[in-house]
Amino acid sequence: MFRKRLGLKFKKIKKIPFRGNSEKNLVLRQQFAMKMLELLESGKRVLNIDESWMTSTNFKRSKWREHGTTNSMPEKHMSARVAIIAAVDTEGDVYVSLNQVNTDIPMMKLFISKLAIQLDYDRPEWREDTVFLLDGASYHISDEVQQQLSGLGIPVIFTGPYSYDACPIELLFSQLKSTELNPEGLPTGTK
């Protein structure tokens, strides 16, 4: 009766299967894994670059809790969202940029150029044994970013689809977001 008065119609929908384990994606992940093993076996340094963002300083509600304890906690929102672009390599070195703008092609190009300058400073011959590892984000695979990487002489490989477990940068973001980032409650903002 209520449905007819409002003119609404309902249609039963079916579950959409997860495509991450399609045959194509499984083959692409296998090819990626074989390439990574080849690079690591040859002694190459792999520098995994990715981005994340934070809108709060308290990530405790996102982590695993002991059985029987509550996961309900008040959130402390930041006054401005912070975008993180980070790189971690197979030697354990970490390079981080914190921004208050969305990550896009110009921001990715800026990060890569500044990272290359820092790597040149740290060890001028780094291009001989270093490969950048990126996922398939639109700003990673864009022509502009690819041209920049090529112009800087930086070899790049891309992860297979849904290869989060193979990306050490995800562990860095997970660790960063596993606790309270501002326990003293210091004010945050753009100033």
Structure explained in plain terms:
- The chain is built from six helices and five strands, in the order ααβββαβααβα.
- It is of the alpha/beta class.
- The chain has a domain of 124 residues: 2-Layer Sandwich (Nucleotidyltransferase, domain 5).
- The longest helix is centred in the first third of the chain and has 19 residues.
- The radius of gyration is 21 Å and the shape is globular.
- The mean pLDDT is 82.
CATH class annotation of the domain at 46-63 and 75-180:
Alpha Beta
CATH topology of the domain at 46-63 and 75-180: Nucleotidyltransferase, domain 5
Q: What is the CATH superfamily of the domain at 46-63 and 75-180?
A: Ribonuclease H-like superfamily/Ribonuclease H
CATH architecture of the domain at 46-63 and 75-180: 2-Layer Sandwich
Content-based structural category: alpha/beta
